[in-house]
Design a protein that fits this description.
Low-confidence stretches: none
Structural class: alpha+beta
Distance between the termini: 39 Å
Number of domains: 1
Strand content: 15-25%
Largest sheet: 8 strands, mixed
Amino acid sequence: MTGNERQQHELMATLGLGDFETWEQCAERQAKMARRFRNADRQRPVNWIWERCEPDACACTLCKDGCWFASRHHRYQMITEAHRLFNTQTDDLHFVSVAHPKWELAVGNLARANITAARQWLYRRFKRLDTTVVAVGGFEASMNVDLGGTSTWAGHVHLVVAGSDKPSLKKALQIEKHYRSRPYSRPVDVRDVDNLGRRLGYSLKRIARRRVAYIDGQGRQNRNQANLAASEQREFDNWLLGLSVGDRTILIGCRSHGGQLRLVNGHAG
């Protein structure tokens, strides 16, 4: 581990992320991703040559969100900057998760995910509040498998939010009932932030999971988590390799200037 990487890990550990990925882990995951494309005889995206990606060389806007080195650099910047920014806020912090049924996509259609529409939906909902908020997080996708075995890409947004109380956030983000056609749906979750660093890390993560539905002993639906199947992982990686670094990041009430997060006037998004 180099001096620069060791310094980064020490800082992330102080923020509660002692398991933040190493450069070696990124290199292994990068090579594994390339093998998945080769083993399936699939041509990798023409605008991405993974052999040229290195820990420092990928710290630029020219690389893709699917590159493990580039995404790690972006996550490191956003987590440390957001942690600093939120420590200047006197308001209570909340961890918000939204999974709107409109953001679901059939298998094979993940590339059609409309992150801009999800971001605009959040802007409109937060404008309903009597106060302005600051939020940092991102858009992600997981593979949901329902009780009948049908698989669907589910779009999610995870955010750390300052500037509003829990009841107001739940009311502003409430999803209309006609969008919730399936039982056991919990599309909006708002909870207190117990560990700011870990919540930011979760909100900005790059890994997707398979979430398989089952009915527990009390008759409630829960989901077991597992790794994506190889074909699902290729689709997920291909989606990220079509996005620039930071395309999935959602910033409200603040903006990134030269890698630093700054509040905007009036905290408007």
